[in-house]
């Protein structure tokens, strides 16, 4: 079998007194759509940070796209850091929340073009072919009709689509999405998940979809990992992992929680 494109082995990450990951091992195969679910604070974003080469490993190792990261090695040498910068060019990242300050006067097309600057070079102008690629991406995320609209005037769901297009403009091999559905209404949420599934297939990506709501992973993920307190509580196809027992173990019994509070 082929090597996994992402491989975490016994990864421990902590922020001062908080331990965010307590020994996480996880292999992700090329082309896979992997869901990462769990309650707030369970370590989801920290996993994305590690894959993206920005996590400081306290223990264990991470292998991403053939680049190896080990505990205690980051920040030690220029050569190592430039290798990781190379790796990071192949990873598209859609952070949680607003992508661009809504007061910054850029329109939708320009916001997506920002994603191409790593390829174009910061001090050169985009060529006609770069704009064509951006317009193709706007079609893909169904935003062509709003391409001239100021970014700050978009709804949450529309901003999310632009954020996805911007990450794709970099032409990544791995796409990291941090809570792309949080705060969206039901309809926009279904639309975003459909778009994610479509770009994953069309672009032949490996995708990591982080969500606090495991329901999001049900129809579109090949596998899902359920996190609890920085540890993997369950891992496998959504149909198996999202059992009532597993969800109760990870999220607690919501019914009894509400009755306890009242
Ligand atoms: P999730 O994305 O699942 O909500 P995170 O990976 O962001 O979880 O966080 C895991 C744990 O690490 C939490 O306890 C959180 O408070 C802590 N943490 C995350 N980022 C930081 C940070 N920058 N500084 C201190 N603690 C942090
Ligand atoms: Mg998070």
TrEMBL record:
InterPro entries: AAA+_ATPase (IPR003593), ABC_transporter-like_ATP-bd (IPR003439), Metal_Ion_Import_ABC (IPR050153), P-loop_NTPase (IPR027417). The keyword Ligase does not apply. GO terms for molecular function: ATP binding; ATP hydrolysis activity. Keywords: ATP-binding, Nucleotide-binding, Transport. It holds the Pfam family ABC_tran. The keyword Transmembrane does not apply. It comes from the Bacteria. Residues 6-254 form the ABC transporter domain. This is Metal ABC transporter ATP-binding protein.
